[in-house]
Design goal:
With 215 residues, this protein is mostly helical. The protein has a domain of 120 residues. It is built from ten helices and no strands.
Length: 215
């Protein structure tokens, strides 16, 4: 019985099922599949930094707008009846996690516990008249567009974030557009913050300059 090659061993450890999409993209070539798998992880790592900064900018901008509008840092209390059942459950789950970790509940801690998806869905069409027009439009003071413009870009970034978090392929996504979208969302909130995020963004602006990246 022959010993497996390093590539065969890696396929066993990472699983043939996980590497199957990478093999398919390389006509079954295992060495090329592993190279693409590694490149995918590098792309994910580069995006993770920028996505993290943009997520915090979005969260804090929306939290600040809601707090100013209601006059309360715990805006989710007076606005409870405006929120969907799912949103209310997300807030309750955040409060449970805080208590479980033995920490005192504060609005800041609740907000920090809420996922990127929570903020994405506050930008949905159902909140156009109840939250967007009277309040959340102000979270994006440099926006020259509509709620849908913000929602669509944030939704794309949220989906990319989830793929990265679950170690899924992202090399075949529209990377150039997603990079631009991340920086545009930051620009809508604060041009200075956008400049700082963009200056440190490890995702190449000219995506074609990195082998395997798709515009």
């Amino acid at each position: 019985m022959t010993n497996p090659t390093l590539n065969e061993l890696l396929e066993k450890r990472f699983s043939a099922e996980r590497l199957a999409p990478y093999r398919a993209a390389n006509r079954g070539d295992l060495a090329a599949a592993l190279a693409l798998y590694e490149r995918n992880s590098q792309i994910a790592a580069a995006f993770w930094r920028t996505l993290g900064h943009v997520e915090v900018l979005v969260r804090n901008a929306m939290h600040s707008a809601l707090a100013d509008w209601t006059g309360r840092a715990d805006w989710y209390v007076p606005l409870e009846q405006l929120l969907t059942e799912k949103a209310r459950k997300d807030i309750a789950a955040a409060q449970v996690r805080i208590a479980r970790n033995g920490r005192v509940e504060t609005p800041g801690r609740v907000v920090a516990e809420l996922s990127f998806g929570f903020w994405r869905y506050l930008l949905a069409a159902r909140y156009e008249r109840t939250l967007w027009l009277p309040c959340l439009r102000g979270a994006f003071p440099h926006l020259n567009g509509m709620r849908k413009d913000v929602h669509d870009k944030v939704a794309g970034l949220h989906e990319l974030r989830n793929r990265i978090a679950h170690h899924e392929p992202v090399h075949n996504r529209p990377l150039r557009r997603l990079r631009a979208d991340a920086l545009v969302v930051a620009e809508w909130i604060c041009p200075s913050a956008r400049g700082w995020v963009g200056a440190g963004c490890w995702v190449p602006g000219a995506v074609g300059g990195v082998s395997g990246w798709r515009a």
